[in-house]
Amino acid sequence: MHRFPMAMLALVSMFALSSCAPFTAWFEHAANDPKLQLVGRMDHTNPEQPLWAFPGTAARFRCNCTGVDVAFEDLGSGGEEHTNWVNVIVDGKTEVKLELKPKATWLKGARGLPPGEHTIEIVKRTEAYAGVVRFFGVSVQGVLLDPPPRPERRLEIIGDSISCGYGNEASITTTNAYTEPNTGFHSKNEDISQAYGTFLGRRFNAEVMSTCISGTGIYRNNNGATEGTFPDRYGRTLPDNEDSQWDLSSFVPDIIIINLGNNDFNVVDPTDNLPTAPDAEPFKAAYAAFVRRLRGLYPAAHIICSIGPMLNDSYPKDRQHWTKMQEYVSTMVASLGDAGVHYFAYTPIQGDPYGEDWHPTANGHAAMAAEIGTFIEGLGW
């Protein structure tokens, strides 16, 4: 599917053997090769061509190699919002950022690597809103080795656009309050590898599953709908496909961080075009029901109900959204009477630079990870 016809490969090999410079052959490996360690929710209906939707979905492997290419098909509809991107991460460093194509395509990955052993990660940068991708496999200039051991610790991030890393590669300064960062979504500026969940995974050497869906809330979405909320979609492998169900027993987290509620407080009042807060009781009831559901699935997990950094009491004026959100969530947590369920509030974003649409930048995500990481250490993890 990739390199040369066999006859030409033989000619190239003979030429290489007769020359001074050594030639290292490329070898292709399908997506279901057991030496590829797959991470995250995937639809394995066709195991040789699994579908990825959530950001952070990845293939991880070790190789004695000097180059790696990847094969994907982007099933998104294209344009600035619906084009998917992946990172090629070599030994912990992002070497290449790849824009995927609408047809099955081999893409040039990381080339010219130092000879020797490397750990490679192919990571979907972009959230499900950008679209689903089909993964075909990798081509390695060298040989695959046994995969790295999976981390013993497991962390699940449950959230909305903040947790997806929405717009975190942008860095926008503002001179007129509440104008410049209203950019809209550009998929190329989103990188889950620079979101707080990934930073926490590195800090604690944990495998991370990022289950995040932009625009969703715990009780109502940012369009006001109380159906199709995050809890309604939580069990899905592909969040926009209700028939695609994930085996929730296949990844059992030690720590669950919930970062939802921002969109519940962002439903616009048509009379003044400003965000409104949800009614307290239905919000708290929906949140408590979701936490109880998670507790039933994961009896031993610590569940952290967090408030993200985008709310504050300055906007909209006199509506006290930050204060209300703290009251709603903290009293909900207390009402559960579960010592393994915790309340945590991030420090609100204090000013520019912002990511797209007022979201945290990559540096902002690093600060979030540092804050909640200290809290997690206090739980004895």
Number of strand elements:
17
Q: What is the third-level CATH name, the topology of the largest domain? A: Rossmann fold
- Helix content bin: 10-25%
Cα distance spanning the termini = 45 Å
Provide the CATH top-level class of the largest domain: Alpha Beta
CATH-assigned homologous superfamily of the largest domain:
SGNH hydrolase
Q: Mean pLDDT, as a whole number?
A: 93
| Succession of helices and strands | HEEEEEEEEEEEHHEHEEEHEHEH
Count of helical regions = 7
**Classification by helices and strands:** alpha+beta
The residue ranges in which pLDDT falls below 50 over 5 or more consecutive positions are 1-21
Assembly of the depicted chains: single chain
* Beta-strand share of residues: 25-35%
Number of domains: 2
CATH architecture of the largest domain: 3-Layer(aba) Sandwich
Largest sheet: 10 strands, antiparallel
Radius of gyration: 22 Å
Short account of what is shown:
Keywords: Signal. The chain has helices at residues 6-18, 161-164, 196-204, 230-233, 280-297, 321-336, 362-377; strands at 26-30, 37-39, 42-43, 51-52, 58-74, 85-90, 93-99, 105-110, 117-124, 133-144, 153-159, 206-212, 255-259, 267-269, 274-276, 302-307, 341-345.
What this model shows, in words?
It is a single chain. Strands 1, 2, 3, 4, 5, 6, 7, 8, 9 and 10 form a ten-stranded antiparallel β-sheet that branches. Helix 3 packs across helix 7 (362-377) and helix 5 (280-297) crosses helix 6 (321-336). The radius of gyration is 22 Å and the shape is globular. The protein has helices at 6-18, 161-164, 196-204, 230-233, 280-297, 321-336, 362-377, and strands spanning 26-30, 37-39, 42-43, 51-52, 58-74, 85-90, 93-99, 105-110, 117-124, 133-144, 153-159, 206-212, 255-259, 267-269, 274-276, 302-307, 341-345. The N and C termini lie far apart (45 Å). The protein folds into two domains: 25-144, Jelly Rolls, CATH 2.60.120.260; 153-377, Rossmann fold, CATH 3.40.50. It contains seven helices and 17 strands.
